[in-house]
Amino acid sequence: MGYIDKCASNPCANGGTCDDGINEFSCQCAPGWTNVTCETNIDECASGPCQNGGTCYDEVNGYTCMCPVGTNGTNCEILADACMSDPCANGSTCVNSGVDFICICAPGFEGDRCESEINECLSLPCQNGGTCTDGLDMFTCDCRFGYSGLICEIFDLCDLQGTWYNEINDKLIIVQTSTGMLLGDYMTYVEQLTGMAASTVALGYAGLNPTNPTFGFTVVRWEGQSTTSWTGQCQICDEKEVLYSTWINILSVNTCFEVREATKIGQDKWTRYMQSTAPSNSTV
Question: What are the cysteine partners in each disulfide bond (predicted)?
Answer without folding.
Answer: 29-38, 67-76, 105-114, 143-152, 158-234
